[in-house]
Design brief:
Number of helices: 3
Oligomer: single chain
Order of helices and strands: HHH
Number of strands: 0
Largest sheet: none
Helix content: 40-55%
Radius of gyration: 18 Å
Structural class: mainly alpha
Shape: elongated
Strand content: under 5%
Distance between the termini: 31 Å
């Protein structure tokens, strides 16, 4: 399997993309997601809030799928 990193720079002011990409790529623990700019951060938070709501609404179904040997 090939290990690849794919970066999508969205929401950043012009000229900052390369600097931010370098900083993130060279970080000891680079972020999986890096929403840049207030507009992108707001969209990301809205999306994750919806995801959390889906988890809350479907919690019993989601957690009811474990095999007996992995139940804690």
């Amino acid at each position: 399997m090939i290990n690849q990193k794919v970066w999508f720079i969205t929401g950043a002011s012009r000229g900052f993309g390369l600097e931010i990409t370098k900083a993130a790529a060279n970080a000891e623990k680079p972020p999986v997601h890096l929403p840049l700019g207030n507009d992108t951060l707001a969209m990301y938070r809205e999306k994750t809030a919806k995801f959390e709501k889906d988890i809350e609404d479907w919690y019993d179904v989601i957690t009811g799928t474990d095999h007996d040997d992995v139940r804690g």
